[in-house]
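Page 37, top half.
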Amino acid sequence: MPRVLDGLAAGIGGTPLVRLRRLEEGLGGGELWAKLEWQNASGSVKDRAALSIVRAALAASRIGPERRLLDATSGNTGISYAMLGAVLGFGVTLVLPANASIERKKVLYAYGAELVFTDALEGMERAIETAREMAAREPGRYFHADQYSNPANWRAHFNGTAVEILAQTHGRITHFVAGLGTTGTFVGTARRLRGEKAGVRCIGVIPDSPYHGLEGLKHLPSVHPPAIWDPQLADEIVEVSTEVAQAMVLRLAREEGILAGMSAGATVLATRRIMRRDGPGVYVTVLPDSGLKYLSEPLFALDHELEVRAESPEAPGCAASQPTPRSAPQPTRPRRKRPREESP
């Protein structure tokens, strides 16, 4: 039966788990499952952490009509804060890199958030530092939510995401794979899974370089790790390049009908690598958001002639995406180099 919600907060959590049957073919007999987190109220997994942080702040009277919520964000958590601020009646000020996608900026504007932009070349580190400086300068005006240090972030996944995954897989999960940004999704889910299911493997995914295009993910070796990060929870960390993650985004759309964001391409790619190596099992990954927030990116340009492989052609079960059919001959232009996935 369709859900009837008494307020948008009730639309956060309870997201579907979908089997990716075409993308699991030829990978040793494992099952590949994806949690579709854009089914949350504002369209991303960050709704879970934002709601947990806001509830804790409201209970402690740290935000209200006279005190604004302040945080640094690459976009999705800010959208979640802004939505909740509109619903619950508190102001939201967000610090984000100037190169955040235009779609995210427009959504934040629509929700009425106050935006402060920082130098894109300095990335999230500059946005985080700016938010800290603003909070220190005007402590009476701002509650600094600090998603990178706030334990309410990972607790949202300990009490929600992990419980849902265990129920949806009937406890059969053998591998959990998630991207690492604030690390809240991974830390909370992995901590609960380890306590409930002996032998489950928990794998984190990061970009392979400090300079990357996987919005929301961090190259942890080159930055100060979030305070909530617990490396003891990770059985391993998999690095993924931007190009092959983007290629997987298109495979998800064209082979599974799932239009997901860039970090989802990275986590699905990493999960397939692990499946090829480890064989039969129940593999669950998280798709944090929809590709609709990235349609201005070059990956989705209508004249972008694509012949890409998300993984090495030598690896079993990996087929190239087909170029988009054209109704008339097109002018010749240089072809993009085909991204090749490293050996697993």
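Page 37, bottom half:
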Amino acid sequence: MTANQFLLLHKSKMLDEEIRELGPGPNQFKTIYFAGTITTRHGDDLDILKSVNSERKQIFEDKMKSEEDHSNGEYQGNPMFDNFEGYFRVQIGEHISYRYEIMKVLGKGSFAQVVQCRDHKQKDKPILALKITRNTEMDHNFSHKEAQYLSYIMQEDPHDKHNIVRMLDQCYFREHQCFVFELLHTDLFEHLKATGFVGFSTDKIRDYSL
């Protein structure tokens, strides 16, 4: 449904921050495919959520004031939706961009975390992998470059002939750059752990990539 239709039905259950995300503006979501727990909130749920967020904001501000060095990227995120390190606070069953349903966490690294999600925009609602980068100035710069490189790779290999993971979509949600990929079996780090950190031979890499 459209954002305006959704607001007519559920505005009373929404945080001010959520309401501002929806609408016809250039940085607003115009179509709602999946809205997480918004539609199931009832009773005092909204008041409890507002109270929790207020406490998070106060704790965040207190910790930020007590830190002298902010160069490591901490306390640069949004206390409403992020932790102190700028990682998006993932909640199973919630949404990303009012489209993707978070199903479980697949992994977390120094610059991002990856969740398994369901795409409610597609008719068959495929299961995908969604990478959520950190919300820090440094990571915004990295993710901008990553978006350029991934778009170029997809453009140069349109028919998936070189065994490169396919980026299917990208979006910007609550100050986090997100990349959507096909869901594969495992990642390189997990494979290395399973093999005692024995790397791939050059021949094997060539077999995969050519």
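Margin note: The mean pLDDT is 90.
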